[in-house]
Design a protein that fits this description.
Blueprint (H helix, E strand, L loop, with lengths): L5 E5 L14 H20 L8 E10 L10 E10 L3 E9 L5 E13 L4 E2 L4 H8 L6
Antiparallel strand pairs: 1-3, 2-5, 3-4, 4-5, 5-6
Protein name: Acyl-CoA thioesterase
Keywords: Hydrolase
GO molecular function: hydrolase activity
Length: about 140
């Protein structure tokens, strides 16, 4: 099964570069978050309590430097697995030339804002996430 892939673009901002002249790895994580927020808003139909989730784990491979003139960046996202209370989100960041700069996976946990604890994914959420599920 190979579901949809969500794609968004982000600009490299002037203040994103460090003294070495490349985007610092902490900014990479911000790019991942910005892409993930856009993806989740699109998948769940906009921001709100439905679909609330927190990042439990983030694994990132930094593969190629991003420079001031590397943008616009393209971030492709899809779902790698759907569990009882969690799901995996894969992120691939490429620069304007198509070079893969980062490959990351976030383990997202469905979250109940009232109890500040994990909760099972409901059937509606599962259906929305399944549209982006890539097997293997």
């Amino acid at each position: 099964m190979s579901g949809k892939t969500f794609t968004c673009t982000l600009e490299v901002r002037w203040g994103d570069s460090d003294r070495l002249g490349h985007v610092n790895n902490t900014r990479f994580v911000e790019y991942l978050q910005e892409g993930r927020v856009q993806f989740l808003n699109a998948a769940f139909g906009g921001p709100g309590v439905r679909g609330a989730a927190v990042v439990r784990k983030l694994t990132t491979d930094f593969l190629h430097p991003i420079l001031d003139d590397s943008g616009p960046l393209t971030i492709e996202l899809w779902i790698t697995r759907i569990g009882n209370t969690s799901y995996g989100v894969r992120h691939v960041v490429t620069d304007r030339d198509g070079t893969v700069c980062a490959d990351a996976e976030a383990l997202m946990v469905a979250f109940d804002l009232d109890t500040s604890s994990s909760r099972p994914l409901d059937e509606h959420e599962r259906g929305l996430l399944t549209q982006y599920l890539h097997a293997g």
